[in-house]
Write a structure and sequence with these properties.
The chain is mostly helical. It has a domain of 69 residues. 70% of the residues lie in helices and 0% in strands. It has 23 helices and no strands. The chain is elongated, with a radius of gyration of 35 Å.
Length: 411
């Protein structure tokens, strides 16, 4: 058993804070006489840190520093406080170290200054390190992140691009590439050529989010088919990527890809969670003459009670009306309409839907009355206005007093 293992075994047996303090005091006494034991305690402190015993690790390091003050111990303590998001304590310890050309210490100093809301001083250190150590990747990466955090997009993009172009063998390229894509998407005008250049040599992706982000970019650049290709890749990697599924439906609708539309509607109906807010997005983007699959019809019916905007509610009911009519279920929609509008404070807004459904059921008088009221309040769409005018013309002779339903020509 090594010395480190023996120390850890002893520590594991401690049950109280008092026992721990006594044990550390004994270790410090021994470390003052034996440098190898001090080195073992440093290993123990690192192990405790990795194992999540933050306070114990820091306490041990600070005791070792009190025993043998040194720059490396001060650095380790400052680094720990920085990692634990305690910038005041981190700065107090890093300030014990004189400024020097050691890139490890100066990188940490800059990060702590950044945490301490002194970004200009941190930037100066990073720039000085880049000048002194132009082949080291860490200052470029830290400076790029600092500019990104402060929303200085152009400067952040510059240093990320340097990393991508010149340090691709020493840094993980995929996150850098994703960040460059993100910065491109943040621009008002997305450049297709820029995305082509970034991804010209990429044969596979590590996550579904990357092809999804690319799809967003190509869609904004006006390249719908390329966007759809990347959406399909994202979906292949993550079949449950709902945002990619919804976006692919949007693209299919915009470009009249009928088969794709139907496939996406079926998938969304089977996979959207109950009461998912993306149902409202479907309401706002689907054409009113769409015919929903059964599962999506049920999902939209269930969501109606969560729609607060009157126009959105009308659009949802309009989509459902067309779906029920096309499936020869107008009476079911009439029951739904009565239920939804039972306590609604502006039922006149929805009269044309009554007219539409009554007409589908062959109830011409009720259809005309509902459409007439909608026309009176100037709340009637062109397709229903055509029905209204047709009914009006066919029965012009009876305008002074309605005949019974048998006198009407029903369709």
């Amino acid at each position: 058993m090594t010395q480190v293992e023996k120390i850890l075994q002893t520590i594991e047996a401690v049950t109280t804070q008092e026992e721990l303090e006594d044990l550390i005091a004994k270790y410090m006494a021994k470390a003052s006489q034996d440098e190898t034991f001090m080195a073992a305690l440093l290993e123990v402190a690192e192990f405790l840190k990795r194992s999540g015993y933050r306070d114990f690790s820091l306490h041990l390091l600070e005791e070792l520093y009190n025993l043998h003050p040194g720059e490396w111990l001060a650095y380790l303590i400052a680094e720990s406080y920085h990692e634990y998001l305690l910038p005041e304590k981190a700065k107090a310890w890093i300030d014990l170290l004189p400024e020097k050309e050691d890139p490890t210490i100066e990188l940490l100093r800059a990060k702590i200054l950044s945490d301490h809301q002194d970004a200009p001083a941190a930037m100066d250190i990073y720039l000085a390190l880049i000048q002194k150590f132009p082949t080291e990747s860490a200052p470029y990466e830290a400076l790029a992140q600092l500019f990104y955090d402060h929303q200085e997009w152009e400067r952040a993009e510059y240093y990320y691009q340097v990393l991508y172009d010149y340090f691709d063998t020493v840094v993980e390229v995929a996150p850098i590439r994703e960040r460059l894509l993100e910065l491109e998407l943040s621009k008002e005008m997305v450049q297709k050529d820029r995305m082509d250049e970034l991804y010209k040599d990429v044969e596979e992706f590590t996550t579904a989010q990357e092809p999804y982000q690319l799809a967003l970019g190509y869609e904004r650049a006006g390249v719908a088919k390329r966007s759809a290709e990347y959406l399909r890749q994202a979906i292949e990697m993550d079949p449950d990527h709902l945002n990619a599924q919804v976006m692919l439906l949007d693209l299919a609708l915009e470009n009249d890809w009928k088969q794709e539309v139907q496939g996406q509607l079926e998938w969304l109906g089977d996979n959207l969670p109950p009461y998912d807010e993306r149902i409202l997005h479907l309401v706002q983007t689907l054409p009113e003459n769409i015919v929903l699959p059964d599962a999506l019809t049920t999902a939209m019916v269930d969501y109606l009670g969560l729609i607060n905007d009157q126009e959105d509610l009308f659009k949802a009911l309009e989509i459902l009306a067309n779906t029920f009519i096309q499936k020869d279920r107008p009476s079911d929609f009439l029951d739904l309409l009565n239920q939804v509008l039972e306590n609604h404070d502006n039922q006149k807004y929805f009269q044309e839907l009554y007219g539409q459904i009554y007409y589908a059921q062959g109830e011409a008088v009720k259809a005309f009355e509902a459409l007439d009221e909608a026309y009176e309040h100037q709340q009637i769409q062109e397709k229903n206005l055509v029905i209204y005018e047709q009914l009006l013309i066919e029965n012009m002779k009876d305008m002074d007093g309605w005949d019974d339903e048998d006198s009407w020509e029903s369709e």
